[in-house]
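agent> Task received from the user: take the single chain below, predict its 3D structure, and emit structure tokens. No templates, no multimer pairing.
agent> Plan: (1) validate residues, (2) run structure prediction, (3) serialize to tokens, (4) report one or two observations.
agent> Step 1 OK, no nonstandard residues flagged.
tool_call: predict_structure(input=
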Amino acid sequence: MIVKNESQNLGTCLDSVKNHIDEIVIVDTGSTDSTLDIASRYTDKVYTYPWNGDFAAARNYAIARAGGDWILSLDADESLICAPGQLKELVRRKNNIDAYMLPLLYPVAECTGEYNQFLVLRLFRNKKGYQFRGKIHEQVVVHNNEVVEIADDIVIKHNMASPKERNRKRGRNLAALKKAYLEDPTNYFLQYYLGIEWLGLAKPDKALPFLQNAYRNLTDDHLLFRAPTLRYLLICLNILGQLDEMICLSLEAALKYPDYTDIYYLGGIALEEKKEYKIAVKWFDQAIQCGVPPSIYSHMNGTGSFLALYHMGFCYEKLGMPENAQACYERALHENNQYIYPAGNLFLLVLKKRGPRYTLEYFKEKGYLNNLRLALTVADLFFLAGYPDLSERCLGRCSVSSDKSEEVLFQLGRYNIYSGRLKKGLNYMEQIPEGSDFFIDGQTHKAVALLLMGRFNDCRSLGLQMWKNKLTRTTARVILSISRSMQDGQSPDASTKFIGADLIRASLNILDLCYHYLPGKSTEGSHLTQIINILESIIRRSIPMGDRALQEYYQDRTNSLREFFDYKFGNGGIRT
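)
tool_result: status=success, residues=576
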């Protein structure tokens, strides 16, 4: 390994590999954190190397200090996934093999199970000639393909980096790649990497010419690079809206690589965006038939299963075939119940056909509410559709109710408050600790509950607490104005002017929460109309543009309701 300032990742990486290998060699290139201390807990072979901008040179320095017969090369933000003894058994298996390509999983979204898969040559014999090359995006080059095999079941998994960290590394890589490209402008591998970095930095217009040139010039002798170049080129064309070019390239590539799943999926996406839904369904179906492609192809997990099924379901909806669409969404959730997006479409389909109560029972019977992420998603859909009592039942009467995470406490508090169970909702909100990500929003919901209950003194005390926090000061001002006006039994003084766009936003947010309040048979909430009137008065007297902001809010609300009812009751929908 070569490392620099990897104290957050190094321990996890070494824990994943320590029981599979005989020796750990770590070369540090200038850490200023606790990286060296962590490394020394795992090995005494820790070296320093003066950084000279050459990744290959640093890695080769590490190889020179390795005493094993085989080298496994990892980065600190990666982990090894394999069974006990599996790695050593692999390298003993064949004397005529010098190197193994291993799958590298690079997460796109950790919570939904989406990841890109690449093959990387990271396991090779420690023998003369097998060295890293390239100052940036360095590779081990093995010229004899007959001594290289693929080991599908020994996996390297990359950590999910934060957007800030990803952009930092991309910026660093881009600077090094530009310099290397100036020295070697006909290097198509560098062009591929330049295209990837520009695409990752949301600059598809800059990425496109590099990816196009790399794809034209890389041959199938370098399919490990040509295949991902093709995939990223299609993605780049999609982002730029060049759908006709994307479809033409997909057609051409499908003839050349008929078992490459991602081509059919991305071609289907282009056809879907062109509203060619019938043809798109065929392309998505072909992606599903292909399934997981041969590992030689760079692959986005799900293109042959849950991703294709989700988009196929959408196309069936557009074709007026709701039963087919529902079957696709159900299959997508069966393939990956962490990929929550089909749940929204499925929710609306079932709600439109059978009504809210049946929809809740449907999601329970399917077992979707036993998955916490899906249960939270479905609960929020009920809330947005105007059924906060059913939202509470999604979490309160299913197997996830035993999960008392801060998010579950917050959502149970929210749903109980807006379905009229104010005291119960407040109790849930009180259990959220001050340092929680849900604490600030929870204070706003608590304030609304206290106002609805007529507990004005308690609400003013809460408002004063919120005033101490800069993040909630504007909301606190609105809450204090409402509680004071309600306690005095009158609207805010007509002569009072409220200043600031932030105050308008905070007032509109509380107004929107009030419109979610549906107490049912409860007698609580008799103050609702008074709260709404006071909020409207505050917004109208806010400058600049308070009156216009209120009009736009009600117009947006009307449009949203119209769209929802058009979906639910249009095209022969059954009203229940």
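agent> Step 4: summary for the user.
The longest helix spans residues 546-569.
agent> Done.
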